[in-house]
Amino acid sequence: xxxxxxxxxxxxxxxxxxVREAHPTDEWQMKxxxxxxxxxxxxxxxxxxxxxxxxxxxxxxxxVPFGIDDMSNAANDAYAAWPERLYIIDESGHxxxxxxxxxxxxxxxxxxxxxxxxxxxxTPPASNSAPSQPFAR
Amino acid sequence: MKKAWVWFGxxxxxxxxxxxxxxxxxxxxxxxxxxMVRYALPHMHRGTLKVGxxxxxxxxxxxxxxxxxxxxxxxxxxxxVLVFGSYT
Lengths: 137, 88
Description:
Radius of gyration of chain A: 15 Å
Radius of gyration of chain B: 23 Å
Largest interface: A-B, 75 and 48 residues
Shape of chain B: elongated
Oligomer: heterodimer
Number of strands of chain A: 4
Order of helices and strands of chain B: HHEEE
């Protein structure tokens, strides 16, 4: 996603919204989490959620503007976002693109295609260089 | 009559077992199948938003942990790409 941000940040605004963890250690942890050293319990309060978000930003030098869903999970509920999802809101405040539910239907290429149709194409990155974390794709 | 109930119970049991085995293969292991059913499915919602709907607003917390802003504060001038996800 950082590459799409780089390619289109002069044309569109971006906002990453961190929602409840998908594979925390105290729920459904994946082997890949251990391999990638991404082991966190599900945050029980906002301070823990903020700390994990900051760890992520620091580890990947993540450039995209960032916001954190609070413990009421209001953004997650409003957008049916968990575990990962993409949307594009147009200038009039309407949903212009609604991505599928992750992980199987999370498809940054669709968001890129929407931006390309609107602002012109930019050569997409090689897919085999993508890190495993959803925000970084 | 009792025999019919035994057959019914066995059939349901075999069906449940087949579903669990199928989920285990799909998810990678029995532990992952359990994790999917116990932790993922209750939180996965298709949602009702569709293209053309008013984008909902929500108040977000900034990375400093204390200041706040709204999604809709970022809309109105250019398209806004929303990227939802988590670290794990």
